[in-house]
Structure prediction request, 138 residues.
Amino acid sequence: MRIDNLTPLMARSLLAALPKAAPGFSVAGEETAARPVPAQGAATNQPAPSVAMLVTLAAADPAIERRRKQAIDAERGVDALDKLHKELATGTPSVERLREIVEWSENFETSDDPVLAGILSDIELRVRVELAKIDVRA
Prediction:
């Protein structure tokens, strides 16, 4: 079966997940034949893995999921800062907004990814500066 129009990242992920999902399958161009190897004591007529199953396996990478959650957290921090800035421009910030920013600052976690860690660090620094301007301790 051939699947077209995949991004290079998705294609690499699928190719990496294939041997894990179906031991004995090989990537085209490898020296070994693409034949399923039956597991000990298992039936030899097991169905080949579906494309949907392979995509699900490739997308279930815990590192990718962790980075996605950290990116969402970074966006939440930036959104809170933006709302605070708008409230400061019109007068006094609401207590709810200050609590949201303090909570974000207290739950701040660094990332293993150096680029994302730098972005999160910049957001956290900006949050601390804004809180210090209003004389709120996090």
The chain has five helices and no strands. Residues 1 and 51 are 9 Å apart (CA to CA).
